[in-house]
Amino acid sequence: QVQLVESGGGLVQTGGSLRLSCVASGRTFSRSVMGWFRQAPGKGREFVSAISWSGGTTFYADSVQGRFTISRDNAKNTGYLQMNSLNPEDTAVYYCAARPVGQKVVLLSIAEYDAWGQGTQVTVSS
Fold it and tell me: Which of these, 7, 22, 28, 78, could form a disulfide with 96 (CB 3.0-4.6 Å)?
């Protein structure tokens, strides 16, 4: 099992940027697919972005396409989510997730991941 710890959340004004980090330990991170999800107050957890084990394939939710960038540095066992042009609708707790490489290059659903971080709060003020 891999352990995940997110950081980088905080309070930012509309139009601002944040970069989230997800540090992995335990299972070999470089052989894991990784994703980011978020959960806003009173709502369910939703998919944000995913990246293949090599970093060569990425996928984004329509709501963040063009504003967020997912990446990873396997040498550092760390994944990232660069968030630009933030707006109040992006306010949520952000979670990273991982799963060993399998048949799918990227994973888009909550049920497909077997390891989760504790989350980091992102608040965007208007």
Answer: 22
